[in-house]
Amino acid sequence: MPPKDIVNALHEGKQIEAKVGHTLMSAAIAAGIEIEAACEGNCACSTCHVYIDEEHFDKLKPASEEEEDMLDLALFVQPTSRLCCQIEMVPELDGIQFKLPSATRNFYAGKKKADEDETDTKT
């Protein structure tokens, strides 16, 4: 049997399908979940802060130091808080449930967004 390439997630009763290797954030936005994602998934803000259900939280890869720094800026952090731009969907996360906090803090840490090109401003 080929490896499963779709992981199911649940947000407040809404079923979301995510391709393996994609982030929870990209799947949620594609499904119409309103996530601000000010830094567009570059781990440079905390606007994609979510709460993960306890069963699946322990299956996540540990948060990087960069993600932890951004979570320090988030509002209403809980023990199961993560940035959904940093959650890579893998088959072990099938059935993951997440909730959005009641508010987010739009603080962009000034990193270059992934889709911005380097430009030479010298004349």
Secondary-structure map with pairings?
Elements: E1 6-11, E2 14-19, H1 24-30, E3 49-52, H2 54-57, H3 65-71, E4 81-83, E5 96-99
Parallel strand pairs: 1-5
Antiparallel strand pairs: 1-2, 3-4, 3-5
What does the model show?
There is one protein chain. With 123 residues, the protein is α+β, with helices and mostly antiparallel strands. It has one domain (6-99): Beta-grasp domain (Ubiquitin-like (UB roll), Roll), CATH 3.10.20.30. Helix content is 15%, strand content 19%. The chain contains 3 helices and 5 strands. The protein has helices spanning 24-30, 54-57, 65-71; strands at residues 6-11, 14-19, 49-52, 81-83, 96-99. Strand 1 (6-11) and strand 2 (14-19) form a beta hairpin. Residues 111-123 have low confidence and may be disordered.
> What distance separates the N and C termini?
59 Å
Tell me, rounded to a whole number, the average pLDDT: 87
Question: What is the number of helices?
Answer: 3
Query: Largest sheet at a glance?
Result: 5 strands, mixed
Calculate Rg over CA atoms: 15 Å
Strand content bin:
15-25%
Which descriptors apply to this entry?
about 120 residues, Ubiquitin-like (UB roll), about 20% strand, globular
Give the structure's gist in a few sentences.
With 123 residues, the protein is of the alpha+beta class. Helix content is 15%, strand content 19%. The chain has a single domain (6-99), classed as Ubiquitin-like (UB roll), CATH 3.10.20.30.
